[in-house]
Design brief:
Structural class of chain B: alpha+beta
Number of domains of chain A: 1
CATH architecture of one domain in chain B: 3-Layer(aba) Sandwich
CATH class of one domain in chain B: Alpha Beta
Helix content of chain B: 25-40%
Chains: A mainly alpha (344), B alpha+beta (549), C alpha+beta (170)
Order of helices and strands of chain A: HHHHHHHHEEHHHHH
Radius of gyration of chain A: 21 Å
Strand content of chain A: under 5%
Oligomer: heterotrimer
Shape of chain A: globular
Shape of chain B: elongated
Number of helices of chain B: 13
Number of strands of chain B: 22
Distance between the termini of chain B: 49 Å
Largest sheet of chain B: 7 strands, mixed
Structural class of chain A: mainly alpha
CATH topology of one domain in chain B: Rossmann fold
Largest sheet of chain A: 2 strands, antiparallel
């Protein structure tokens, strides 16, 4: 392992995790507020300014962060202080680690760790996100927080099952679990003109995947673990930057979901009919990276729109949806894919 | 014994009964301004006009005597029209300054306007102007514009207070009430002149602009300024005594009370003992009591006999509890009665003894067979242990000297009057915060009720005694008001067969003696009122049992 | 008999939920792009800079009216505090040099933390002394003490009243 490789990897980690994911997550906190305002015919955040520059309210994430840092860091009496401190970190780290295997562009240079087990790594790390919510609620010594964490645990485990099964169809079609290879596979053309993107060959899986992953992210319409109107949720006792970490992790997860959906269903860095092998280099590669970022931003926007369109489910409806509809549908999807593949 | 019919209802009354009194006895309402059951009749307001079969025109019912076979109609069209006309005439020059008038809310003129007239004024000219807000006495202020010239106040001063200081002067619309030049309305009952005023012409200076009457809560209690023990109603607002007004009681004070008793409440909140004190240092009540009980037990163990100074402001129950405790724990104890020194008596209400319950204390001490030592020479014996009770001690009080001479002393008082000479001081409730009974000089037992909430640290004497008894190992048992009263009815001759709930608004006369001939019940017209008063007291009775439960 | 509301059974398309999600997202996106591109249709105003005019009957900050000589019209009759359902008016009455009325408030305090701006005090007032027609919105304060309006504060918002005190022929 030479020094250049180490430095390059570190640079990629900084660029992808901290510059791309975190900043996009921070901007999404503003984006969510601004978007909700715009769809409701309001103006939204436009007040925070630096030297009189408001930049459409883009200074708000900075103001929010400063506020979170200067607030009282409160730990309730009787809380498990160690786990209470650990929980926000456990919530924040997994979505960042997931980016290790996401290919931002063609070739091994645009991915931190081009693992062959790609998607399996994502599931393994993503599954750890449950700990943040569960331990956070449990260690708070508050019954409402505990209820929230119980809901979070049950919901996340339920949807993880169907989320994994959804992608089995993709694996079957492209014959790999490596994300880089899946993206390359999506460069092929069907009948000589249609890009073989995941959404084209697995449309049902895409809808099921988006549903399951949004439920996994605990956001509206699946925000029962937070349930502001009834139990306040697992982060009830958190304040200051610890709360902000929970909050930010949610937005980074939006980026993770968008990145995964873009990679698996929208051809990753592929631009249709242009350089499907990713060997061109030069401006075409830049364009391919830009295409990936653009797809991620678009899918983030779709998630925000869904969040401001749909009302909340009841908790029993959430569980019923997960086990009675999503799981059988993903199984059916696998069977159908297998049948089609066998017939071809 | 004439029998007459009022509005078709038959009633037989004593000779010399006025028609209005018979109607009151039947509960038939007849409006009135100048008539007052405690005053001679003047019949000048004409508000009480009724129709009878004896006269072609309506007659004033407060003036006409009942006759056999009389038929009285109180609600015919003619009568109602007459009342309306009288009221319109009375209101002709009235300034209608109810917003600034202290009487508003308990004003007969207001009530009867809404009841019998309820029409806008037809008077389109300048109203008569007369003296306003004149302080005609040290305790009373007079507004001639509001005056309806009923002369109740004039008759009161002349016939009840025995001080003919007021007169009606001028005539017609210029008529008003005034004192003689160079004199003041300063008799010791002058505030009652303001009470009898049916409108806001005479108002009490002490109460002027202090509180609107409809905000106040009335508590039926007893005045403690002298051994007459006048029945009073203590009006409070926001846990503060606002004024004291006499309450009708044919056994004790008729309708009246003296000015001194009605303004006495001002001094009871000054210089309160705020917290329990041990040798000059503020301490927690229970802690101080623990220490005192320990010290007392030690002293009693050494064979020292305590001197107990009782206060004639104590209720019978408090005194009974104290004596029963010391009777068992210190059989040789010396008892004495403190209290305020005698003043001057007059022929109306005020008695020389300025303490409310001396008779009750004597009765209880007699039943225990105890001879009291005179308070004036108590300090000469230099008792080593002195326990003094009392809502107050006067400055020249000998109790202080006795306390000073003692090695171990405890004072249980509402006011901080002894200074720092005592070993233990415990805060007590004032007479306006106490539950119990007082017996007046003439043997009428009446209930004292708390009008305001006591400060947090202050305790009622019998609670203090009960706590002390528990620490001394001789518990009293049921230390509630009802419980101790029950014990008293067993122990004390005069109390035999009494029940606490039976002590109504008029009290109960425990014995007859020669001195109370003047307090003989007033004839007729009052029969309806005991019930009414009992109804009023119903609410306070309810709170009593809540406290005692 | 109440009115029967027609509630059709949701058909398969609605029950399958996805088409309705799509319709909803279409509606939300329409607003999004319309507002993003054409900049119209905002219903909100920029509050501290822009303010809407209150209706003439708006009940805002209390004020105490003046007599011709500038003294307070209130005669401390306590009718407002009697009528007040929130018990927010505390008055201490005292003598005044004006012999026509004798009585005036020494203290007149409104506890805005309790006040519900119902206007009963205004209705009860026999002297047209207290009014809620200042047109000012009650501004929140940082301390409880700042939420108490004293006599001077209330008088500073007041003005002369056109109604005659004490009737026509005074």
């Amino acid at each position: 392992m030479d020094l250049t490789f180490l430095l390059m990897t570190l640079l990629k980690i900084v660029l992808i995790c901290f510059v791309f994911a975190m900043i996009l997550g921070a901007i999404l906190t503003w984006g969510e507020r601004k978007l909700s305002a715009v769809v409701q015919d309001r103006i939204g955040p436009n007040r925070a300014s630096i030297l009189g520059v408001t930049a459409l309210g883009l200074m708000h994430p900075i103001a929010d962060m400063l506020k979170a840092f200067t607030k009282e860091d409160f730990v309730p009496a009787g809380a498990n202080r160690f786990l209470f401190a650990m929980a926000p970190m456990l919530a924040m780290v997994p979505p960042l680690v997931v980016f290790a295997v996401v290919p931002f562009g063609p070739g091994p240079d645009f991915v931190i760790a081009p693992l062959d087990t790609g998607v399996l790594f994502i599931f393994a790390i993503g599954g750890m996100g449950i700990y943040g919510a569960t331990l956070g609620g449990w260690s708070s010594n508050n019954s409402f927080a505990l209820l929230g964490s119980l809901r979070a645990a049950a919901q996340m485990i339920s949807y993880e099952v169907s989320m994994g099964l959804n992608l089995v169809g993709i694996f079957m079609i492209f014959g790999t679990v490596s994300l880089s290879n899946i993206v390359l596979g999506q460069g092929q053309l069907l009948w000589g003109w249609l890009p073989m993107w995941g959404i084209v060959v697995q449309p049902v899986a895409f809808i099921l995947f988006m549903t399951a992953s949004m439920a996994e992210n605990k956001r509206a319409p699946f925000d029962l673990p937070e349930g502001e109107s009834e139990i306040l949720g697992y982060n009830l006792e958190y304040s200051s930057m610890r709360f902000a970490l929970f909050f930010l992790s949610e937005f980074v997860e939006i980026v993770v979901i968008a990145a995964m959906a873009a990679t698996l269903f929208f051809g990753g860095w592929q631009i249709p009919w242009v350089d499907p092998q990713g060997t061109a280099g030069g401006w075409i590669t830049v364009g391919q990276v830009a295409a990936f970022v653009g797809k991620v931003v678009f899918l983030c926007w779709v998630q925000l729109i869904i969040r401001w369109t749909l009302p909340r489910f009841r908790y029993d409806q959430v569980m019923a949806l997960g086990w009675k509809y999503l799981l059988p549908l993903s199984l059916l999807n696998i069977v159908a894919t297998a049948v089609v593949l066998a017939m071809l | 014994m004439p029998t007459l019919k009022i509005d078709g209802r038959e009633i037989t009354v004593k000779d010399g009964t006025r028609v209005i009194e018979a109607a009151d006895a039947l509960g038939i309402p007849i409006p009135r301004f100048c008539y007052h059951p405690g005053l001679p009749v003047a019949a000048n307001c004409r508000m009480c006009l009724v129709e009878t079969n004896r006269a072609p025109k309506p007659v004033p019912s407060c003036h006409d005597f009942c006759g056999d076979g009389m038929e009285v109609q109180t609600a015919t069209e003619k009568v109602i029209e007459a009342r309306r006309a009288v009221l319109e005439y009375i209101l002709l020059n009235h300034p209608v300054d109810c917003p600034t008038c202290d009487q508003a809310g308990e004003c007969d003129l207001q009530d009867q306007y809404f009841e019998y007239d309820h029409k806008p004024s037809r008077h389109a000219f300048r109203k008569a102007h007369k003296p306003k807000a004149r302080a005609i006495g040290p305790r009373v202020v007079y507004d001639a514009e509001r005056c309806i010239n009923c002369t109740r106040c004039v008759r009161f001063c002349e016939d009840i207070a025995g001080a003919p200081q007021l007169r009606q002067i001028q005539r017609g619309e210029k008529a008003y009430i005034d004192v003689f030049p160079g004199t003041e309305l300063d008799n010791p009952y002058s505030m009652c002149a303001a009470d009898v005023c049916p409108v806001g012409a005479l108002t009490v200076r002490d109460f002027r602009f202090k509180c609107r009457v409809w905000f106040m809560k009335g508590t039926q209690s007893v005045c403690g300024e002298c051994s007459r023990g006048c029945s009073v109603r203590v009006d409070t607002y926001k846990n503060e005594v606002q004024r004291i007004v006499p309450r009708h009681n044919p056994n004790v004070n008729q309708y009246w009370a003296c000015d001194a008793g009605r303004t006495a409440f001002h001094s009871f909140d000054e210089g309160r003992l705020e917290a329990a004190r041990v040798r000059g240092r503020d301490t927690d009540f229970d802690q101080a009591l623990d220490q005192f009980a320990h010290d007392l037990e030690e002293a009693l163990g050494k064979g020292l006999t305590p001197a107990v100074i009782l206060s004639p402001f104590m209720t019978c129950e408090d005194a009974f509890a104290a004596i029963s405790l010391f009777k068992t724990k210190a059989p040789g104890a010396v008892y004495s009665i403190g209290g305020r020194e005698d003043g001057e008596a007059d022929e109306v209400l005020i008695r020389a003894d300025r303490n409310p319950n001396r008779a009750g204390l004597k009765m209880i001490l007699d039943s225990f067979g105890i001879e009291t030592a005179p308070i004036k020479t108590l300090h000469e014996a230099a008792h080593p242990v002195v326990i003094a009770f009392g809502y107050e001690f006067e400055e020249r009080n000998y109790a202080k000297m006795a306390v000073q001479a003692a090695q171990l002393s405890a004072v249980f008082a509402s006011m901080d009057v002894i200074g720092d000479v005592e070993t233990y001081a415990f805060p007590a409730v004032s007479p306006y915060e106490t539950y119990g009974t007082w017996v007046n000089e003439f043997g009428v037992i009446q209930r004292v009720r708390p009008a305001v909430k006591a400060p947090e640290a202050a305790k009622q004497a019998r609670r203090f005694i009960a706590d002390l008894a528990e620490r001394l190992g001789a518990p009293l048992g049921d230390a509630s008001l009802v419980g101790i009263f029950g014990l008293m009815t067993e122990e004390i001759e005069e109390f035999k067969g009494l029940e606490l709930d039976a002590v109504g608004p008029f009290g109960i006369k425990l014995w007859e003696d020669a001195a109370d001939v003047e307090a003989e019940t007033d004839a007729g017209g009052d029969e309806a009122e005991p019930e009414e008063a009992a109804k009023e007291s119903g609410e306070s009775n309810k709170t009593d049992s809540a406290e005692e439960a | 008999m109440g009115k029967l509301v027609d509630r059709p059974e949701p058909d398969v398309m609605i029950q399958s939920y996805l088409p309705e999600v799509w319709n909803g997202m279409k509606r939300v996106s329409k607003h999004f792009f319309a507002n993003l591109l054409m900049k119209k249709g905002y219903v909100t105003i920029q509050y501290p800079e822009q303010k809407i005019d209150y209706a003439p009957r708006f009940r805002g900050n209390h004020r105490l009216m003046h007599r011709e000589d500038g003294t307070v019209r209130c005669v401390a009759c306590f009718l407002c505090s009697t009528a007040c359902p929130a018990d927010c008016i505390s008055i201490v009455a005292g003598e005044t040099d004006n012999r026509d009325v004798e009585k005036a408030p020494v203290k007149f305090e409104i506890d805005h933390l309790r006040c519900i701006f119902c206007g009963f005090c205004e209705e009860a007032c026999p002297c047209d002394a207290i009014r809620l027609d200042s047109g000012e919105h009650r501004v929140p304060a940082f301390t409880r003490k700042d939420e108490m309006s004293g006599k001077e504060d209330l008088l500073s918002r007041g003005g002369p009243s056109i109604s005659k005190q004490g009737g026509e022929f005074k």
